[in-house]
Amino acid sequence: MSVTPLKLLRDWTCRQAPDQARWLVGQYASLGQSGNEKDLHLFLGLVPRRLGKQDLRLTPQDLAMANQAYPGWSPEGWSLDGAARIAALLAFEGTRPFSDTFRDLVRTADARELITLYRGLALYPRPESLTDAVGEGLRSNMRAVFESIVHGNPYPRDHFDQHRWNHMVLKALFVGSRLSPIVGLDSRVNAELAAILLDYARERWAAGREVSPELWRCVGPFAERVAAYDALQRALAGTPEERGAAVLALLAADTLYARDLLQTVPEITALVADGRLDWNHLTLKKEAA
Fold first, then answer.
1. Predicted local distance difference test score (pLDDT) of residue 34
2. DSSP one-letter string for 111-157
3. 8 A C-beta contact, residue 223 and residue 250
C-alpha cells in the first residue's frame, strides 16, 4: 500500500505533538467532510497557538518515506505548525476548485504563511492550476518566500516550462540563492539556460563582480555548444571554489578540448574521482588549490 503525503504529515504532526494528537486527527477528518472554508481558516489560524512554531523533527527514514510518497519531496526544514497546515490543505474537500481557495490564502498571507503555502505546492490537488499564484511567489522580493518555491520543492521541476525554469534559475543566482537545493536541476539543464547564464557571467565579469561557482553546473553539459571554454578557462584560474566548479563542468562537457583543459589540473580532477569534490562540496583543500 502506497504512503501518501497526507498520511505522512498527519503521522508526523501527531507524533511530535501527542497532547494535541486527538484534536489534530479530529480536525483533519472534519476538514475532509465539511467543505466549509471557514473551518479551514479557523484551523490554519489556531495551529501555531496549539502546536507552537518549533521545527518539524524528522528521521532519515521519514525523509526517505517522503521521497517515496512523492519523488523529490523533502520536508526537511519545515516547521511543525507548517506541516499541520499543509496536511489540513491536503485533507480539505472544498466546494470550489482548490486553486481558488489557494489564491485567496496567498492573497491574505504574511511572509511566514506564504513560505508554508508554497512549500506544499507539488502535493496539492491539480497543482498545474496553481501556476498564476506561483508566479507571484517567484516575483517576490523576499528571498525566503522565493526559496520556498525554488529549494527542496519538486513543483518547478514537474510543472514549469523551459522559459519559466530558466528564469527561475537566473533569478536564484541574481538574488544570491544556491542552486544545489533546486530539485531536478541536472535533469532540466538545457542549451538555452547555458547560454543565458554564460552571458550573465560575462556581464558580471565586465562589471568587476564575482560569479557564483554553481553557475557552471548548468553550463558544463553544453560548454561546446555555447562556446564556454574561454569562460571556463578563466574560472580555472579563479578561487578554489571556482576552480572546483570549472573542473566539474569540464567533466560534464566530456569533449576532447575539455579533457585537454582537465589535464592542466590533475590534482583537482583527482579529488572528484575520490569523491571529495562535488557540486555540494566545492571547497578545495589547500594543497589542491
1. 81
2. HHHHHHHHHTGGGSSSGGGGHHHHHHHHT-S-HHHHHHHHSS-SHHH
3. yes
